[in-house]
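Summary for the funding panel

The consortium committed to producing paired sequence-structure records for every protein in the target list. Below we show the first two records in order, beginning with the earlier of the two.
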Amino acid sequence: MSDVKIRLRELSKVFQTQAGDFTALAPMNLEIPTGCFFMIVGPSGCGKTTLLRILAGLEKPSGGTLEITKPAADRPSNSMVFQGDSLFPWMTVFENAAYGLRMRKRPEGEIRDVVGHYLQRTGLSRFHNSYPHQLSGGMRQRVSIARAFANDPDILLMDEPFSALDEQNKILLQEELLRIWEETRKTVMFITHSVDEAVTLGDRIMIMTAHPGRAKQIVDVPFERPRRVLELRAKPEYGELVYSIWGHLRDEVQRARALDEGSAS
């Protein structure tokens, strides 16, 4: 993780509303190395998703600069995995997972091999002809992950992809994500409200302040890879790191709550 993949310089975002300007992101400076699994935690409304949407090209910053190293000519810049169900209901599991490759007009033989590989890695091979309504929530998120990796993006953007799942499915998908990521070591930007998830998955964790969002602290995660979720969480050092990060985050959550109560009164 030596080369810088993403660089933010005084990046900010202001939305114009009927009530006036709303600053979602205060000027932010940040460098993310190539191959880093970068986690973002912060209170609701701190601009986490806005930042991810700027990186995805879905929003334009109001100020500052965003520099992203260009990918190889035959590779997309990024793929995004959303919090909610983003599958096409009229497509099968295979067709959903193949969507990005087909949009890029890749050869059918390549699509068959690549999609088959990621369906196997996510435990979905026998469901390749199933439709989203026939799958559980956890299985639908596996399809989203398979689609993102199959498209072979330079950067993977993930917006709370496991937040709606029960704890058992969440742990299983965290382990699957880590196994797949170990194959490629893609640069990942992952938003979560869970400090446990941030420490389990991440190389670095950015703690954001309450609105307007800015980087309060960046924490390096010292645990070696590959990781197994339950074994990692049994370590005393894991609990100590989670407790330390939560201490920083708790102040911002309480400040965000005070701001919400103040604006509502």
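The next record, for a separate protein in the list, is shown here:
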Amino acid sequence: MNLFDLTGKVALITGSTKGIGKAIAVRMAEHGARVVISSRNQEACDEVAAEIREQGGDAIAIACNINYKEQLENLTVRTVDQLGPIDILVCNAALNPYYGPIQDIPDGAFDKIMHANIGSVHRLCQLAIPGMAERGGGAVVIVSSIGGLKGTDKLGAYAISKAADMQIARNLAVEWGPKNVRVNCIAPGLVRTDFARALWENPDTYAATVKHYPLRRIGEPDEIAGAAVFLASAAGSFTTGQTLVVDGGGTIAS
């Protein structure tokens, strides 16, 4: 048996029109999953789903703004209607509208970060996990960040939200483990995505970051995708409630 085979599994992946989310969707499709591409922009979703189908994969596109519960409900209902019950949920979509000391963050930005980065994960898990449990199991992968493991003077609210995502994984792993539902986090280090552009595009910031990374470079989206496939597949069948750090060694050396 191929430990990484996802043939026939339905995988719902938020924030999957670019960056880490897209890489996860592409790789899960390559391993046989039927993937749902989702972000706020329907046209972007359609384009990525078409790319995957052109490569021989199975993908549909459903736009969703994770800030709205009714859209999350619509996303899960349409996924089940079009592809069948959800086997794999990847909570990747997140936002960070503020860069600077947490002392100075506006209330609106703080609330927005918590609502999106914690609230949407909580709500999607509420919507998807019971169905997994009824069918004998499933897997949830939450894309967190090493920011949730360290203090930071520029990404404080975002880091708090990502630490909370790790705790969501631990709590849900305990609650749903008896039903064979596994819940884990991936904590990427600095990865070359549009979301983290402010951190890697500035030469000084980039140099200050990678000098502490044993691999002396930042990661690429595809290097996170492999971890997601592992956690969603039979290869990760005895792994739950964990945070898998994929950061080029940054957290162990800085």
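Regarding this second record: The mean pLDDT is 96. Residues 10-195+221-249 form a domain with the Rossmann fold fold (CATH 3.40.50.720).
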